[in-house]
């Protein structure tokens, strides 16, 4: 993961004044520089800008000039910063009608309205402009998982791959979006990573800020799957502190993977903090899809934190969980050969997940606000449904 320099640190590195570095940033002469508040942060790998009077143009600067051609319009809602509670107003203010339509499609998906998202995305699957076609195919694929249309989901993902294959000769930012889509799809479905994915530092700086924040979530999720919980949590904390919070959709997903990390590290206090932050970001605009998608990985945190205070919202989230997880398993299990449990209730799954991770009955009961006898009853049902006898046998049915 690439780090960043402050204005002062960059000035010392390049032997110029802080004022000059600030000017470079303002003029857009430092690729990857980002404004946070009244200052800037600069990628460690960034080079001191050359004399603008010289006509020499590097291949990187040419690629940067081409970048908006691909990214303008790709997942416009995800890539837009807005205050929670202003999502629909943000969509209405977008510069052209097609961006508004794609952003509305995103909204339908991330608010748990899979049928509407699928129907609207289908209208743009063959759109002549690549960013809109990519966006529609990606949303369509995941919406189809939630409504049980697995063949349609695989078709949409295949259309993305075909388009990318045809456009590989354009520039490296095409490879960047290919890497993002391929990696995100594999990680979110818990599938093996595609071969020949370039190093993160090669494509991350080419992504726009909102998409970059979501890419950091994908990286953190990948590290979680590798059981590198501390590293994953560190990436989340750094991304959020450096501006990721400005983009509500990526921020929700970042907070959720932090919950997963801290529950795995048995730091319930930090897990609860991130659960509430995810909820505070999602609730004002009803962006609850991510909470439902991640239920099985959150270690009962939805039951412990959301259910007691927002019971009706909790029911809607669990409905999303059942729908998405059913489609998710129909792709994940055949490809990986894993047997992730598909006939447990969400509460049974949460209890079983914690039990498989080594939590005692008493710890599970306290965490989920239920009695020890209820925990034992749930585990009895789990073992009966899965035909297992002990914790070790249970592990292969969990997302461990």
Question: What features would you describe in this structure?
Answer:
By secondary structure, this protein is mainly α. It folds into 2 domains: 46 residues, Winged helix-like DNA-binding domain superfamily/Winged helix DNA-binding domain (Arc Repressor Mutant, subunit A), CATH 1.10.10.10; 252 residues, Tetratricopeptide repeat domain (Serine Threonine Protein Phosphatase 5, Tetratricopeptide repeat, Alpha Horseshoe). Helix content is 64%, strand content 3%. The protein has 21 helices and 3 strands. Strands 1-3-2 form a 3-stranded antiparallel beta sheet. A hairpin with a 2-residue loop joins strand 2 and strand 3. Helix 7 packs antiparallel against helix 8. The longest helix has 26 residues. The radius of gyration is 22 Å and the shape is globular. The two termini are 24 Å apart.
Number of helices: 21
Q: What Rg is obtained from the alpha carbons, in whole angstroms?
A: 22 Å
N- to C-terminal separation? 24 Å
CATH architecture of the largest domain: Alpha Horseshoe
CATH T-level fold name of the largest domain: Serine Threonine Protein Phosphatase 5, Tetratricopeptide repeat
Structural class of the secondary structure composition?
mainly alpha
Strand order of the largest sheet: 1-3-2
Which stretches are poorly predicted, pLDDT < 50 over at least 5 residues? 53-70, 332-337
CATH class division of the largest domain: Mainly Alpha
Give the beta-strand count. 3
| Shape descriptor | globular
Overall number of structural domains: 2
What is the N-to-C order of secondary-structure elements (H for helix, E for strand)?
Answer: EHHEEHHHHHHHHHHHHHHHHHHH
Could you tell me the strand content as a percent range? under 5%
| CATH H-level homologous superfamily name of the largest domain | Tetratricopeptide repeat domain
Mean pLDDT: 80
Largest sheet: 3 strands, antiparallel
The residue fraction in helices comes out at 55-70%
